[in-house]
């Protein structure tokens, strides 16, 4: 029968081994050759866009890369689906945008801020998401089939 | 209660109860917004309510864990807490940081990263607070007469929970990297080190309630936390399937997260078996209900419902839908909310000297809150599955789908009312126990 000491060895050993593998895989994932995010395309606009995204907790309603709050649409591939003009209108309008009755906060962003956010979405759109991109955007799927 | 300083725990539990009530209020605000009743939108938009709801959850659970540690560690280490005044300082600062964060969320002061919305400036205060807490607990433990496995596992869980807060504070330019390391905090907390805390509390309660030999309980505790880490650490991969990192995570995450239910199954079997083996019939049946309930419901909520959408082939469609909310609610309820309610139910009569554990109110609180939460889980699940099919398979517009599923949120609100009624009864019981008193020291526990 298993002794307490063996049980402790199982716990400590298992933890150390799996954690080391985890760190190894993390380093592997972020090596240059494995990059799927087009890291070199992150411009100053994209970084500013990400900051605006965070400062206003957009993830508190929307999802991006499938992560967020499920109250408002997924924004991965949103430029494919809606086009830049539509997005800019939503971001800059002084009255709450409310398609089908569900209200968005009227942020009334400046032109420049809206451009930064669009640059951020643009960068997100090109990430290789292991197939999830085709699920969230029918248009992306059609494009791939062409 | 054996040591005077254990009374500190009472105030941490009281803070927990207060924050739990607020969490329910913000949950209702979101539920009503989802059925179109969003009259509060101008003051509390959905993203504010959401951040408040999840952060209150984290803070009330942490406050509960800290209370549990202040109650358990002196008893395990067989000495008074090293410094009671500092423990109260820690309590008050925890409450102040929590309140500042929650108020800030109403004024667009946050860092919009799911679950880690606390602004950077407050992050440092959180760290200082947790360090003070850990200092008090570890000093008590190491100056104590004995160091039990239960106390060590509990302290390890608390220590690593603090350590793992750091990756969440690193700044990244890339959303992908940001998200990757955000899960180092969130996943490794809830599917890793928090389970050590849960295991520690569970083991303490089982030793007290069943009378089974400590050596036996603690041996299995090692096996369970061993299984937790073996599956949970690499199981983090299930968050990395579709966020823009290498496909290797589909394999690693898929295999190891499929093993995650085993840890919860082991925990449930362990608790039930210890209860069966136990010869001691502790009169506090209510604490036993919550303890066994936590072990069983966490297996269903965290283990089974987690598994339901953890395979890459399924997750491709369910990622970013209400299916996640289904799993999230029952998992947090079973694993963490119920274990905190269990330790409160156990320790409250010991600290106050009032044995109210035979009341019908306490049992009603247990059953109503559980039935309410299971109903909510079903409502989220149905809404989520319908959303997956309509939006992801039939490519319907997001808001068209939302209108189709809004009826499930009416069901959700009804079930949430049942849960709230149960919690209200629990809190009435809490208040009726009165304040902790030194006279309770002589009580046999």
Automatic annotation (TrEMBL), chain A:
Signal sequence interval, chain numbering: none
Ranges where the Cytochrome c domain occurs: 44-125
PROSITE patterns: CYTC (PS51007)
Transmembrane helix found in the keyword field: yes
Membrane-crossing residue ranges in chain numbering: 9-30
Highest taxon, organism lineage: Bacteria
Record-linked SUPFAM superfamilies: Cytochrome c
Gene Ontology MF annotations: electron transfer activity; heme binding; metal ion binding
Keyword annotations: Heme, Iron, Membrane, Metal-binding, Transmembrane, Transmembrane helix
Name of the protein this chain belongs to: Nitric oxide reductase, NorC subunit apoprotein
Source organism: Flagellimonas pacifica
TrEMBL record, chain B:
Keyword Transmembrane helix annotated: yes
Any GO MF annotation of the entry: heme binding
Protein name as annotated: Nitric oxide reductase, NorB subunit apoprotein
GO BP annotations, alphabetical order: aerobic respiration; electron transport coupled proton transport; respiratory electron transport chain
Keyword Flavoprotein listed: no
Single GO cellular component term: membrane
One Pfam family from the record: COX1
PROSITE patterns: COX1 (PS50855), COX1_CUB (PS00077)
Protein's cellular compartments: Membrane
SUPFAM superfamilies with a match to the protein in the record: Cytochrome c oxidase subunit I-like
Protein source organism: Flagellimonas pacifica
Assigned protein family: Belongs to the heme-copper respiratory oxidase family.
């Amino acid at each position: 029968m298993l002794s307490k000491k063996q049980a402790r060895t199982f716990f400590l050993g298992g933890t150390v081994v799996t954690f080391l593998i985890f760190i190894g895989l993390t380093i592997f994932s972020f090596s240059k050759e494995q990059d799927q995010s087009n890291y070199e395309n992150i411009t100053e606009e994209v970084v500013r866009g990400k900051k605006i995204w965070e400062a206003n907790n957009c993830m508190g309603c929307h999802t991006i890369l499938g992560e967020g709050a499920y109250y408002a649409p997924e924004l991965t591939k949103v430029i494919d689906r809606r086009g830049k003009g539509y997005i800019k209108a939503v971001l800059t309008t002084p009255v709450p945008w409310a398609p089908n009755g569900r209200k968005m906060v009227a942020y009334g962003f400046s032109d420049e801020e809206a451009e930064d956010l669009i640059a951020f979405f643009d960068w997100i759109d090109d990430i290789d998401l292991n197939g999830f991109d085709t699920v969230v955007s029918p248009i992306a799927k059609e494009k791939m089939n062409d | 209660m054996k040591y005077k300083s254990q009374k500190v725990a009472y105030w941490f539990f009281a803070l927990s109860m207060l924050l739990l009530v607020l969490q329910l209020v913000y949950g209702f605000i979101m539920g009503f917004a989802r059925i179109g009743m969003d009259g509060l939108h101008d003051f509390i938009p959905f993203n504010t309510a959401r951040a408040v709801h999840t952060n209150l959850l984290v803070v009330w659970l942490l406050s509960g864990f800290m209370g549990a540690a202040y109650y358990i560690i002196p008893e395990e280490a067989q000495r008074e807490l090293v410094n009671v005044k500092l423990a109260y300082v820690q309590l008050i600062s925890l409450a102040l940081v929590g309140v500042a964060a929650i108020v800030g969320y109403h004024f667009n002061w946050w860092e919009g990263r799911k679950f880690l919305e606390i602004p950077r400036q407050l992050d440092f205060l959180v760290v200082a607070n947790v360090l003070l807490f850990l200092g008090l607990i570890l000093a008590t433990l190491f100056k104590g007469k004995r160091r039990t496995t239960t106390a060590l596992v509990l302290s390890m869980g608390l220590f690593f929970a603090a350590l793992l807060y750091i990756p969440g504070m690193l700044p990244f330019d890339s959303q992908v990297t940001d998200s990757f390391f955000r899960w180092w905090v969130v996943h490794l907390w809830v599917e890793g080190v928090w389970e050590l805390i849960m295991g520690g509390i569970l083991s303490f309660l089982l030793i007290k309630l069943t009378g089974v030999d400590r050596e036996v309980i603690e041996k299995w505790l090692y096996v369970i936390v061993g299984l937790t880490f073996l599956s949970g650490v690499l199981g983090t991969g299930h968050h990395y399937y579709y966020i823009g990192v290498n496909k290797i995570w589909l394999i690693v995450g898929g295999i190891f997260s499929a093993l995650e239910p085993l840890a919860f199954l082991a925990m449930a079997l362990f608790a039930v078996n210890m209860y069966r083996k136990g010869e001691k019939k502790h009169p506090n049946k209510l604490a036993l209900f919550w303890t066994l309930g936590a072990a069983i419901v966490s297996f269903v909520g965290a283990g089974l419902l987690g598994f339901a959408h953890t395979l890459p082939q399924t997750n491709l469609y369910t990622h970013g839908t209400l299916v996640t909310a289904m799993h999230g609610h029952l998992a947090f309820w079973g694993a963490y909310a119920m274990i905190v309610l269990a330790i409160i139910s156990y320790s409250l009569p010991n600290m106050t000297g009032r044995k109210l554990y035979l009341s019908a109110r306490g049992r009603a609180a247990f059953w109503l809150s559980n039935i309410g939460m299971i109903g909510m889980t079903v409502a989220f699940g149905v809404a989520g599955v319908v959303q997956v099919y309509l939006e992801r398979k039939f490519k319907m517009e997001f808001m068209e789908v939302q209108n189709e599923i809004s009826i499930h949120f009416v069901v959700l609100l009804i079930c949430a009312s049942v849960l709230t009624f149960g919690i209200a009864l629990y809190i009435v019981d809490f208040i009726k126990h009165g304040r902790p008193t030194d006279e309770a020291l002589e009580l046999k526990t």
